Amino acid sequence: MLCALTACTAEDNSMPNLPAIAVLDVPAGRESTSPNLASGPDRSVVLSWIETDGPGSALRFSTLLGNEWGDPRTVSRGENWFVNWADFPSVVPISENLWAAHWLVSQPAGGYAYDVAVSLSTDSGQSWSELITPHRDGTATEHGFVSIYPNDAGVGLVWLDGRNMLNESDEDIVNSGMSLRAASLSADMVLSDELLVDELICDCCQTDVALSAEGPVAIYRDRSSNEIRDIYVSRFVGSRWQEGKPMGNDNWEISGCPVNGPAIEATEKSVAAAWFTAADDEPRVRAAFSEDAARSFSTPIDIDIGDTIGRVGLAMLSDRQVAVSWVRKSAGESPEVCVRRVSSDGRLGPVRVISRSDNVSAYSVPQIVRSGNELVLAWTNRVSDSNRVMSARISIDSL
């Protein structure tokens, strides 16, 4: 498929196409989905995905080598995995040698009862340990939407945890809803610091974690007792997660989960976040900046309004500029992947539309990371009844 980079704004949709962007052929199988991008401490870029493997599934990954993806490697495979477009696995370089991966394993109860499986590599992804489950509640409930990040000399994990949903007959939704929990895992597979981050959050929105100069910052979609589901952040200070604070007070009241998580990035004390809301029946993609390690954030900046679907991604360009990716409806109502530069003073670059909109999967969750002077993106196409992970490079200067 030929991907083309186009530029348009809300005021002018007639700007000519820019030269074609660089398509990166993904070394995935015929049926592949659930891409995830991660950047290592040496700025290396790792793409992971799920692909069909006989009667089951396999988690595979590749490292970007110059202008192409390297040979794929397999972390694990199984026939009892929970494969879901919204809750996808990851492979994350924690340090030069220590890497972490996670995927989801269905419980015998079936349905949305599944566990998080984590494996570590101490040789940069060449070999992988036996799996470990970071939650030890043993309930037949949902555990997923994991964010993995470097934590001291090991791995930090944040995930959605459904253990309280066993109390669904309880009229108190705080006592019967989804919670956000965290734990630490050492390089020798010792689990510790199992902590509650937030006792009631939205049921199935992706989470994210950024490392500021003052420690980890988690971002997630909260849920109040009166069904306000706005974006919150929680800072890890000392030995515990602080009480979550709302990002923009969108006041989005919605009775069900929108399956639309936020993204966050940090450089020293500069932190940026992006998210989707449809408060007041007006779909919007928004961003906000912090200069004090996420203690406070600026007034939200609207990046796209109206036909946006959300599913945001975020990459830091400088301490005052980011690139935000998201999905919106094209004029023909098909989904298309977009990227836009956003400055902390509210200035917006033109909207860059990536790929042919008639191919982008309606259930794609695009990923974006920075690699030098370029951005690397990954998403899922739906062509001839098959899913296929796609990737491309974009010059930052083109934004």
Your description of this structure?
The radius of gyration is 20 Å and the shape is globular. Strands 1-27-26-25-24 form a five-stranded antiparallel beta sheet, with no helix packed on it. The chain is built from no helices and 30 strands. Mean pLDDT is 92; it is low at 1-19. By secondary structure, it is mainly beta. The protein has strands at residues 5-8, 22-23, 32-39, 45-53, 56-65, 68-69, 73-78, 90-93, 99-106, 114-121, 143-151, 154-161, 179-185, 191-198, 208-212, 215-221, 231-237, 240-241, 245-246, 263-267, 270-277, 284-290, 301-305, 308-318, 321-329, 335-343, 351-354, 367-371, 374-383, 386-395.
Oligomer: single chain
Percent strand: over 45%
Please provide the count of β strands: 30
Q: What would you report as the Rg, rounded to the nearest angstrom?
A: 20 Å
What structural category arises from helix and sheet content? mainly beta
Average residue-wise pLDDT: 92
Q: Provide the helix percentage.
A: under 10%
Overall spatial form: globular
H and E string: EEEEEEEEEEEEEEEEEEEEEEEEEEEEEE
Count, helices: 0
Distance between the termini: 23 Å
Report the major sheet. 5 strands, antiparallel
Largest sheet strand order: 1-27-26-25-24
Return residue spans where pLDDT drops below 50 for at least 5 consecutive residues: 1-19
